[in-house]
Structure to design on (390 residues):
């Protein structure tokens, strides 16, 4: 027999990744009674397979960059909100990013891109080729130049999700893992009344869809269309090393690959050190459904591209490889906020590879909507009903 939870809830968040954790944290901080439910463990989906990028450098002016700038501020504030020990707890590193170009034409393209970003508050500092190795001593010689982005940062994503949820639970939130949401309950008027899992009923007037790559399936349970698709990516993890990579470093073509809608394989070197010593090497993206097959071609490409940027990595051993699925929407913008088609349904999914960086802003904006406040950012570009059905 299904159990009904007591006391009554204000909100059910479906998904215990970092986006769902941020939604729960900010909602609980606003005084709402929250339950988080996930069919797997905390950070068991996209979050657990992420690099932890908190980037402004790869985003052109527009709503996603605005969201990233808000999140940049919020990640810093969280260090204080969570007791001043966020850095150690979640490996938060405001280490900055370096984007490099191999040719003069590539540097000119970076220059134009950075000019637009500066106009909306991004700090982007041009670095001539001969000075790049002052920032990264082990970079390959002969690069044309690059840009330094001091606002870029990194966290350990699974730890970030866990600590946000721990803070939410201290404020009264409930965490339910290992239970699959099988239905979204709606009343006679069509409004959300809660969810059912394979074990219980959770009654609440609001449900947040933070189901990541499965956000489309959760939306369908509520009777609406949201075309979330999985985009597979791989990351190489090297043996522990001295800090040979100081920043988050990537080649200029990474920006174009992020913006691409191609279903085919795309790879571009993204390289960074970690506090524990291993170097993380990405990034790849391809739409192959939920196929988890290990691709030797992807691994080879990533290794070659990393060694081209950092020759010191050519003889370094790869300890392991992990893979995950980014929740991709066709226009590369997430779905955030109230769904006008179903009262009480909110979305926080489709962030693709930027969910870890955009999580705090997403959680804050949804909590502001839930409590009747004017959100700090216009959510119109993120409306879930912007995609035609079918």
């Amino acid at each position: 027999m299904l159990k009904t939870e007591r006391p009554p809830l204000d909100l059910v968040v479906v998904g215990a990744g970092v986006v769902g954790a941020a939604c729960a944290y900010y909602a609980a901080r606003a005084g709402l009674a929250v339950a988080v439910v996930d069919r797997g463990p905390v950070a068991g989906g996209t979050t657990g397979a992420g690099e932890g990028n908190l980037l402004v450098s790869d985003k052109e002016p527009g709503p996603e960059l605005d969201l990233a700038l808000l999140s940049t501020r919020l990640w810093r504030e969280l260090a204080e909100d969570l007791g001043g020990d966020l850095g150690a707890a979640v490996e938060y590193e405001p280490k900055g990013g370096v984007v490099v170009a191999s040719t003069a034409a590539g540097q000119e393209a970076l220059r134009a891109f950075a000019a637009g970003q500066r106009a909306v508050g991004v700090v982007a500092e041009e670095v001539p080729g001969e000075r790049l190795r002052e920032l990264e001593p082990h970079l390959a010689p002969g690069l044309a130049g690059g840009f330094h982005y001091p606002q870029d940062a990194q966290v350990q994503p699974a730890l970030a999700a866990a600590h946000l949820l721990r803070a939410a639970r201290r404020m009264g939130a409930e965490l339910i893992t290992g239970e699959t949401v099988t239905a979204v309950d709606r009343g006679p008027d069509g409004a959300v009344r809660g969810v059912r899992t394979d074990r219980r009923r959770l009654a609440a007037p609001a449900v947040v869809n933070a189901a990541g790559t499965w956000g489309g399936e959760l939306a369908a349970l509520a009777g609406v269309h949201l075309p979330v698709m999985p985009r597979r990516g791989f990351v190489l993890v090297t043996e522990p090393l001295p800090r040979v990579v100081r920043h988050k470093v990537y080649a200029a073509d990474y920006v174009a690959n992020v913006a691409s809608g191609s279903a085919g394989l795309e790879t571009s070197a993204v390289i960074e050190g970690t506090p524990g010593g291993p170097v993380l090497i990405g990034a790849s993206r391809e739409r192959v459904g939920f196929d988890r097959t290990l691709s030797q071609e992807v691994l080879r490409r990533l290794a070659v591209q990393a060694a081209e940027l950092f020759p010191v990595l050519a003889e370094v051993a790869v300890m392991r490889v992990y893979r995950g699925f980014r929740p991709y929407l066709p226009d590369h913008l997430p779905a955030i906020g109230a769904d006008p088609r179903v009262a009480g349904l909110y979305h926080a999914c489709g962030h693709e590879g930027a969910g870890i960086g955009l999580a705090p802003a997403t959680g804050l904006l949804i909590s502001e909507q839930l409590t009747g406040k004017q959100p700090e950012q216009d959510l119109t570009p993120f409306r879930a009903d912007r995609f035609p059905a079918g």
Summary: The longest helix spans residues 63-81.
